[in-house]
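Our preliminary data section would be incomplete without showing what the modeling component actually yields. Below, a chain of 115 amino acids is followed by its predicted structure, encoded as tokens that our downstream tools consume directly.
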Amino acid sequence: MRIKSGVTTRAHKKKYFKLAKGNYSAKRSRWRMVKQQVEASLAESYIGRKDKKGDFRSLWIERINAACRQHDTTYSRFISGLKKAGITLNRKMLSEMAIRDGASFGKIIALTKGA
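Predicted structure:
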């Protein structure tokens, strides 16, 4: 007696169709197109998650640079001074300090100028 795979196939396809919800035209209703579109979309979303990290780093650097220029220095001089002074704050935290707490950021800039 042979075993049919209807239940397994339906479950597999159902998962793909659920992921394809919201796509345009046949890309959400025809199996072959759904499969192609979902695989392409998953690949793009993986790439996007990696790109997002770089995008945020760029944003933090821009914010730090803007804050540094208000204190008459540049980003590169500031980062160089941080390393020489032995201050290990990451760019995310420096960016947050520049936005929320300008006074303490100014103190850090003073420390880096001295180094």
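The domain at 14-114 is CATH 1.10.1900.20 (c-terminal domain of poly(a) binding protein). The first helix runs from residue 6 to 19. Preliminary results of this kind motivate Aim 1 of the renewal.
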